[in-house]
Amino acid sequence: MKRYKLPVQGQHSETVILANGDFPCHPIPLSILKGAQYIVCCDGATDSLVRAGIVPDAIVGDCDSLSDENKERFAHIIHRIREQDTNDLTKAVNYCIGIGRKKITILGATGKREDHTLGNISLLCQYMQHTDVEMITDYGSFIGTNTDGLYESYPKQQVSFFCLDRCHITTHGLVYPVQNQIFDSWWQGTLNEAITDEFGIDTDGRIVVYRAF
């Protein structure tokens, strides 16, 4: 059974993808960004990163939202992918997988547009087939999984999970227990709470687990 740690301030991240949503301001994602070994920017996120005084290692996307100044400055690390069947975040994830970087932290993937936010969160269950990936926001973290898991927590931490498939769900260590119930809608697993320093979710389908900071 896989165990998932809580993200903490200053943790080492092998690879960070910065999407073009809200730029991180919470101490945890901001410290992860600043301490990342390798940073891949989704297109226009480069402009925000540079304003924060950080230089990317690669830029991936169709470059439709990247400033002319940074197109010129970073021309040597731009990987332009013009096809429109996937979004820039997926292009960046595929790029990382292609160069052997399979432990990925995604930042800046929420905010600005709700449709992008929902799409990016749901894509975690696609990425998990090929990589170890976590999405961290200014409010918490998202993990995609399709197997039983244990999640590091703390008492009264707010917890939600979202079912992308019709799943049998059993939970352990949450205030509102679930015992082999069938969940088939996103809302059904929301607004729960951890009891101790760890909780478990058993599933036979794809879910996204959220833990608030």
Description of the structure:
The chain is an alpha/beta fold and 213 residues long. The protein has 2 domains: 2-141, Thiamin pyrophosphokinase, catalytic domain (Rossmann fold, 3-Layer(aba) Sandwich); 146-212, Sandwich (Jelly Rolls). The chain is built from 6 helices and 15 strands. It has a 10-stranded mixed beta sheet, sandwiched between helices. It has a 5-stranded mixed beta sheet with strand order 1-9-14-11-12, with no helix packed on it. Strand 4, helix 3 and strand 5 form a beta-alpha-beta unit. The radius of gyration is 17 Å and the shape is elongated. The two termini are 24 Å apart.
| Broad CATH class of the largest domain | Alpha Beta
Number of domains: 2
Low-confidence stretches: none
Specify the biggest β-sheet.
10 strands, mixed
Q: State the end-to-end distance.
A: 24 Å
Number of strands: 15
Gross morphology is: elongated
Nearest-integer average pLDDT:
94
State Rg.
Answer: 17 Å
Order of helices and strands: EEHEHEHEHEHHEEEEEEEEE
Question: And the CATH topology of the largest domain?
Answer: Rossmann fold
- What is the tally of helical segments? 6
CATH architecture title of the largest domain? 3-Layer(aba) Sandwich
Structural class per helix/strand content? alpha/beta
Strands side by side in the biggest sheet: 5-4-3-2-6-7-8-15-10-13
